[in-house]
Amino acid sequence: MIRVLSLNLQHGLPGAGAGDGSAATGSLVGADISDPATARAVMRATAAQIAELAPDVIALQEVDLGQARSGRLAQAAFLAEELGMPSCRFAACYAGPVVGLRRRPLRSALSSPTDDVLGPLRAAVGAGPIGYGNALISRFPAVSWHIKRLGRGALSVEKRGERAWDPRSYHVSTASQRVMVAATLDLPEDVVGPVRQLSVASTHLATRESMAARQLAAAWGALTGLPGPHLLVGDYNLNAEQVAALGPGRTLGEGATFPAAAPKRRIDQVLTDPWPTGPDGLPLPEDEAVAAAATSSGVGGSGNPLLRAVGWGTVSFIVSDHVGTWVDLEPVG
Q1: Can you tell me the mean pLDDT for 49-64?
Q2: 298 pLDDT exceeds 60?
Q3: pTM of the model
Q4: How far is it, in rounded angstroms, from Cα 25 to Cα 42?
């Protein structure tokens, strides 16, 4: 069995779960995470909560790297070290501070000054990289890492004043860049039986449904070119019904994830390979589906083992305006 967790980190900002006392944290309501010591304390407490859940793979979204607002912490690397997970990759949607000159990274890892066009200048004054994006962490070794840039939506204009001729009556918002970070993981023999490799990705899609749909198609297309069964995990900004209507695969698990204070919608999803269908377009019985999925020549087959959820749930963390969602997976048949 594999347990996969998705969590929109919201740059480690204490949220609705900050005062619940879980993981011996006490109350962290209103904690100033721009202070480096406080930022580490909040992330350490979050890691303790994650450890209680014991996931094998963690997909994170809205992750900060070196941002002043979150204590200059490399959040993904910090969590991976706290959890003792050897595989970790951060992928920046943009380089630069949250407020100021954002720019497309030359390479999304931002692990070297040359990954950012202004990186050498920052390095010359002793400053490290700054960015924001998604991350993937796992206790399983990663055979390979893959990045897919998903683009950005159109800008939006909101009228806030009464004078149509006055430019100050309008507020222009640009859409955020989106990115997918994926890994092909090597799985031990005792984890999920016949499955030896798993390709899993973390992503965060646009808030506008039409753009999120295009990004989902691009992300799924890139992920399914990798070996093994596939899991696309993250904040889709789409509910399960919307994802099903788009048709790329099967959503697993259930439970509302947003907003954290009183969750009403499930917008954080775990998507896996579609169930094979017969000539009539209906799902095949399990034994036929397993046979079809085992070979790419099978009717509706993907050439990969199918995964099913055998357990799922949601959990409130100290941080974020989302609650986390987890799914336990095993092969079908």
Answers
A1: 98
A2: no
A3: 0.90
A4: 8
